[in-house]
Amino acid sequence: MVNPHAPRQNQLLRALPQAEYERLAPHLEAVALPLGKVLYEAGGVLRHAYFPTDSIVSLLYVMATGESAEVAVVGREGLVGVALFTGGNTMPNRAVVQSAGHAYRLRAALLRREAARTGPLSRLLLRYVQALIIQTAQTAACNRHHSVDQQLCRWLLLSLDRLSGNELAMTQELIANMLGVRREGVTEAAGKLQRAGLIDYSRGHITVLDRPGLEARVCECYPVVRREFERLLPAPTLAVGGGWTAPSHAPYGPGNIDGAGG
């Protein structure tokens, strides 16, 4: 069986040429990421980059009032800590574990050193940053212009793309914090999806029963983000020695880290 916690379960690590990966591998440290763990606070110095394997991390903007809204999600397709190789050491948001699991972390100095080599890793990271920017921008537009149930569909689909199953452990209160809406709005939206037979929600667990139904109901924001990840990042096919086999709905396509194809 494929080990779900192997480093190359992360798409970025899996996409690296063998020589590049072997240079990083001795420095990758396996860490458990429990639900709610804060990887960094707004303005805090980033000391590690995290490559999730089976966890999801939410990037949240926290207002002065304490209210928050999710600006992006990161799972096995990416990494947490892009500021480490884009020229800064801090971010104005908070990184919180949304779905418990595991990741591999790399010390900040090592990531900077490898990114500065301007090789395959550097090109891959730049593509990932572009995809992340697009996700952030589309999330802002979605939160401004689309209904809560459409936002919930988008959030569920983005989360499913980063998990192996169809179940999420998440309370309505946490979802409301992610979407930046009132809990009552999430309750109403989740009720609509449940009555339509798309999800089952019970005791903090959401099971997606009809993914095509969610995709038919979601706004344009989800497919925009999905297409850009497909265009920019390599497809997560099975790697020799313990990679991940993409499900049929996997959103990441045949991006070429050597510069071709977009």
TrEMBL record:
GO terms for molecular function: DNA binding; DNA-binding transcription factor activity; kinase activity. The lineage of its organism: Bacteria, Pseudomonadati, Pseudomonadota, Gammaproteobacteria, Methylococcales. It comes from the Bacteria. GO terms for cellular component: cytosol. The keyword Kinase applies. The keyword Cell division does not apply. This is cAMP-binding domain of CRP or a regulatory subunit of cAMP-dependent protein kinases. Keywords: DNA-binding, Kinase, Transcription, Transcription regulation, Transferase. Residues 146-212 form the HTH crp-type domain. SUPFAM superfamilies: cAMP-binding domain-like, Winged helix' DNA-binding domain.
